[in-house]
Amino acid sequence: MISRYIVNPVKELTNSVQRIGQSQDLSERIAIHSQNEIGVLSTEFNNMLNRVNNLMTAMVNEQTAKCSAQLQSLYAQINPHFIYNAITSIRILITSGVNSRADRRFTLLPCFCEIPFRTMKTSAASSKNGTFWINISVLWAFWDAS
Q1: Global confidence as pTM
Q2: Among residues 60, 68, 66, 62, which one has the least CA distance to residue 123?
Q3: CA 46 to CA 66: how far, in whole Å?
């Protein structure tokens, strides 16, 4: 009879901890049936899971902010370099007498300059910057064809 009050709660706690460990479901909590030592262990285990969830959420938020800052830094580096190369390319076309190609490239230039800033705003929120690279590659194909 005494073992039922001691052993069964310990077995239940052990089974619950093992189940959470195997499933890796950190949203699951252990049911607390008493205020004794087993209840205290169950409460503290649930509190520990809450802290782990909070730390994981903070880490994901921190990584998202870090990635967004890196993207902004990359855009800030790429855009001036691209503009310099594009203007140089247009100048060479004009001095070579290929004015129609220079005109088409000049027309595309604002599109290239606008995409990173539009994408930067949306990618920070959605973390999907693949659209930026697709848009750039499509415009680059037109750029090369012009």
Answers
A1: 0.53
A2: 68
A3: 30
